[in-house]
Amino acid sequence: MFGRKREGREAKERPPFNPRSRVSLYAMGGLYLGYLLYQLVGPYLGEAGTAPSVPTLLLGILVLGGGMAALFYLAWKMYQMPVPVEDETALPEESPSDGEKDGGADDGEPG
């Protein structure tokens, strides 16, 4: 309970984390901040309703617009990064010391 491992049970294998999922989360957060910004500015754009005071409007534009821009910037930078590819089927490279284990008798020269 509470995250402790129990004796005798193996931990379940989790699939590898996909870094693109964080990009989509940041983009959705940016869209939500854009929606909140639109709701704040909406009464000034001609919609019916009570409009917030000008200092509240400016502070909201600064906070929500800045947060939205920062999230979209982070999402774009993360999206442009290449996804790391792990190839489990690749054979390990042969090191030069592996050929010297047999004493160097098979060096191709007669003698």
What brief labels describe this structure?
111 residues, mainly alpha, 2 helices
Write the layout of secondary structure elements.
Layout: H1 20-41, H2 54-80
Helix pairs in contact: 1-2
The computed structural class is mainly alpha
**Biggest sheet, open or closed, and with what strands and sense?**
none
Instruction: Kindly report how far apart the N and C termini lie.
Output: 70 Å
Task: State the share of residues found in helices, binned by percent.
Answer: 40-55%
Inertia-based shape: elongated
**C-alpha Rg, in Å?**
29 Å
Low confidence ranges: none
Please indicate the percent range of residues in DSSP E strands (runs of 2 or more): under 5%
* Number of helices, where a helix is a run of at least 4 consecutive DSSP H or I residues: 2
Instruction: Write down the secondary-structure element order.
Output: HH
Mean pLDDT, as a whole number? 78
Count the E strands. Answer: 0
Question: How would you explain this protein's 3D organization?
Answer:
The structure is a single chain. This protein has 111 residues and is mainly alpha-helical. Helices cover 44% and strands 0% of the residues. The protein is built from 2 helices and no strands. The protein has helices at 20-41, 54-80. The longest helix has 27 residues, at 54-80.
